[in-house]
Amino acid sequence: MTVIRVDSAAGRLRFGGINMACTLGRGGPCAADGKREGDGCTPLGTWPLRGVLLRPGRIEAKGIRLPWRWVREGDGWSDDPADPSYNRPVHLPRPFSAEALLRDDDAYDVIVVLGHNDAPPVPGRGSAIFLHLSEGRPTAGCVAVDRQDMLKLLPLLSPGDVMEIA
Questions:
Q1: Total-model pTM
Q2: In terms of C-beta density within 10 A (0-12 exposed, 13-18 middle, 19 or more buried), how is residue 67 classed?
Q3: Residues forming the active site
Q4: In angstroms, rounded to a whole number, what is the distance separating the alpha carbons of residues 49 and 77?
Q5: Which residues, other chains included, contact 100 with Cβ-Cβ below 8 Å and sequence gap of 6+?
Q6: Residue 57 sits in a domain of what CATH number?
Q7: What are the tens digits of pLDDT across the range 11-28?
Q8: Would you give the end-to-end CA distance of the chain in angstroms?
């Protein structure tokens, strides 16, 4: 197991010899047990890397060792605490609120799914906490890095690796 370390105060992500800038949630860091849906906070703690979602035509899958798949039309992630599929991948449209994974911007060209609040999900304690591409502004609670940094990092990640946000 290798640890990706995120220094929330410095806005830095470190992995092996790599040291890069990262962006966190607009609400800043928060204790994981204080995380609430929609608060914009990035939860402190150690989260397993569950897998990678890639947008077709935007990125190559070469060298990726984590489990991965292409994002398809209708892919979403439930963010509705009333949804029985809360904090899980879902198909859109659906009767509950969910975030579309095919977005108009580039942020979700690469999504590394973090294992926050997923074993099992507790409704309202935060959903869709990802490592994704930076759009030059704070995230909704995720960790984001520049595209070139993500392309360096992605092939180095392996099953069993974790992200420690401190």
A1: 0.97
A2: exposed
A3: 132, 142
A4: 16
A5: 75, 76, 92
A6: 2.40.440.10
A7: 999 998 999 999 999 999
A8: 18
